[in-house]
């Protein structure tokens, strides 16, 4: 059983993700909803939706890390075949009884009756047991093309939050906070330069800050625009 859990639900891949590392602007309400779900652990269904890179997976993985015990995080886009592994009665029972269940990229199973039936059954089982479920997808459940009416009705009735990308001003604040957490000094001119010349996905920016932090320490240099330009050029090679 433990081997099956590890194979199907690889929580350890991103086990360092935490809710404390999630930058709330501009999705503070969604973060509060996840924190409440983790704290109360009542029979609620919470659905987060938004484009890729907006922070949905971060919130699900952070929630999974915040609760004691085995908390399954399942990325539906990673589960193709054999699908029957998670419908095995022992595995299904384990998923139903976990303190929290996190299902990511649920829209990738839309239109597949067997997989939507799994959603419907696991939802009903968990709600009946008083256990919460946390879901994430690219768009609202009302706009997702489900084929199972009962599941469409259930998932559309739960609490929902739309996540969005931060504005340019919010990104500047977040980037400054990310740098400060690393003990990295970066001026506003350098911040704006980095935002103009590097992908604005917060995960990508965090990885770039890690590079800047390491190289500035190795070379004993301040993080200036010329230094960022050199690092970006090196990264593109």
Describe this structure in words.
The chain is of the alpha/beta class and 237 residues long. The protein contains eleven helices and five strands. Strands 2-3-4-1-5 form a five-stranded parallel β-sheet, with helices on both faces. Strand 3 (101-104), helix 6 (113-129) and strand 4 (133-137) form a beta-alpha-beta unit. It is elongated and about 60 Å long. The termini are far apart. Mean pLDDT is 88; it is low at 1-8 and 10-15.
CATH top level class name of the largest domain? Alpha Beta
Rg, alpha carbons: 20 Å
Overall mean confidence score, pLDDT = 88
**E-strand count:** 5
- The CATH topology of the largest domain is what? Rossmann fold
Low-confidence stretches: 1-8, 10-15
Order of helices and strands: HHEHEHHEHEHEHHHH
Helix proportion range: 40-55%
Identify the strand order in the major beta sheet.
2-3-4-1-5
Q: In CATH terms, what is the architecture of the largest domain?
A: 3-Layer(aba) Sandwich
- Tally of contiguous helical segments: 11
Overall 3D form: elongated
Secondary structure class reads alpha/beta
């Amino acid at each position: 059983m433990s081997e099956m859990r590890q194979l199907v639900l690889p929580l350890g891949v991103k086990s360092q993700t935490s809710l404390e590392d999630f930058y709330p602007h501009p999705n503070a309400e969604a973060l509060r909803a996840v924190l409440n779900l983790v704290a109360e652990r009542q029979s609620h269904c919470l659905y987060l939706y938004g484009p890729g890179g907006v922070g949905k997976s971060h919130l699900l993985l952070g929630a999974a890390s915040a609760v004691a015990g085995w908390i399954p995080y399942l990325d539906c886009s990673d589960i193709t075949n054999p699908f029957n592994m998670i419908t095995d009665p022992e595995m299904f029972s384990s998923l139903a009884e976990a303190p929290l269940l996190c299902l990511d990229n649920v829209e990738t199973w839309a239109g597949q009756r067997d997989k939507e039936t799994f959603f419907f059954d696991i939802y009903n089982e968990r709600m009946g047991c008083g256990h919460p479920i946390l879901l994430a997808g690219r768009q609202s459940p009302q706009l997702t093309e489900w084929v199972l009416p009962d599941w469409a009705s259930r998932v559309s009735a739960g609490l929902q939050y739309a996540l969005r990308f931060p504005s340019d001003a919010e990104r500047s604040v977040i980037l400054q906070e990310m740098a400060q957490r690393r003990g990295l000094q970066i001026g506003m001119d350098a911040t704006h330069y980095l935002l103009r010349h590097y992908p604005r996905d917060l995960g990508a920016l965090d990885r770039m800050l890690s590079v800047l932090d390491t190289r500035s320490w190795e070379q004993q240099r301040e993080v200036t625009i010329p230094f960022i330009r050199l690092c970006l050029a090196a990264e593109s090679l």
